[in-house]
Amino acid sequence: DNLARVNAWIARHKDLPVSVCCLSTLYVAPTSRYPQGIISYLNTLYTKPNHRKQGLAGHLLHRAVEDARMSVCDTIVASPPQNLRTFFHKFGFETESDCMRCVLREG
């Protein structure tokens, strides 16, 4: 029951979804890296091609990060393609060997 939770943020245009951001929150054993034992994985960030370059994905990602920060989540993990890593840096994500991580709480 409390093993995972998914939150979604959706931008709409004329009542139709045009951009989405989804975070899966996972409960793990607490460690020094994850003191609360709660991490989120960014499993979707997508904007329809004809709605790109309008800031929608950035707005949704900002909301997702801020909502995670307000919760007890320790970290958000993402695996964006190489060409989007600069975009993710703007929201506090740091590059690691196999992913990007936005640390919300230090251990």
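(ticket continues) Second input and output from the same batch:
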Amino acid sequence: YNIGSDGFISRFDLANYQIISVKEVTFNSSNFLIYPNPSENSFIVEIDKLPTEKMQISVYNMMGQLISKNPVSEKATKINCETWANGVYLINISDGNASKTVKLIKN
């Protein structure tokens, strides 16, 4: 056991790690738009550039379960959410190299 200067007792030590580099690749948030949000029956993901072959939209619930996976073939993709339970969902848009996740509220 380790006792810190604040009196907190821990069972482990954190080793010193040195981070050499981190490459972060994400979409610029202005590259796509999701509307309406909140949504009831369906929502649209609109991308401001032509989609690539690898581009896809994945929807996850808050437990991390994949709900829907859709390839993107046009600038605007409509996704039906009528049968989903009300709540918050994570919409992930990826193109094979970069990805961005945003929240969608389903009423």
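Agent notes: The beta strands are 2-3, 9-10, 32-35, 42-47, 56-61, 66-71, 76-80, 87-94, 99-106. The longest strand covers residues 87-94. Closing as not reproducible unless the customer responds.
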